[in-house]
Design brief:
Shape: globular
Helix content: 10-25%
CATH topology of the largest domain: Agglutinin, subunit A
Number of helices: 2
Distance between the termini: 73 Å
Structural class: alpha+beta
Length: about 160
């Protein structure tokens, strides 16, 4: 009887895992797998890449920086043009990642809670990137297209 109970329990557990996976309940675990190399010092952040504390994207005078306090900011020189508003909620383990579902997310730490997200999603898995332009415009876009999915709104610095 006990053997049948364990077998039934395993069967129910497998069924539950399958149902939850179909419902998309494991997306957080899947997207928080270790990301590809960081794009530090580049103009673009591509799918799977992340910026950790102190790393940044740069184009001309503009830098999009992942700070050690958990905040992601756009600066022109030392002037802050835009901030995600997560300062003080993270620490040196915090990072921002471009997920394959087109959601740009700041995590407190690996497998930790999300502090901020762009709340963008696309169903066609194209080549996505976060781009910093020479004018300071930060956009989440489909590569080689002028299709913007999301952009940072800020007053010009």
């Amino acid at each position: 009887m006990e053997k049948q109970h364990r077998s039934l329990t395993r069967h129910v557990a497998r069924l539950l895992v399958g149902v939850l996976a179909l419902a998309g309940c494991f997306v957080v675990t899947a997207v928080q797998a270790p990301a590809a190399s960081a794009a530090h010092g580049e103009q673009r952040l591509r799918v799977g890449q992340r910026l950790t504390a102190g790393q940044y994207l740069v184009n001309g005078q503009y830098r999009a920086i992942m700070q050690s306090d958990g905040n992601f900011v756009l600066k022109k020189g030392s002037k802050v043009c835009w901030a995600a508003g997560t300062g003080g909620r993270g620490d040196s383990r915090s990072y921002i990642v471009m997920q394959s579902d087109a959601n740009l997310v700041i995590y407190k730490y690996v497998h930790g809670p999300a502090l901020w997200a762009s709340h963008t999603t696309i169903f066609e898995r194209g080549h996505l990137m976060l781009n910093v332009s020479v004018t300071g415009r930060v956009t989440l876009q489909i590569t080689d297209e002028s299709t913007y999915i999301w952009t940072i709104a800020f007053s010009y610095c």
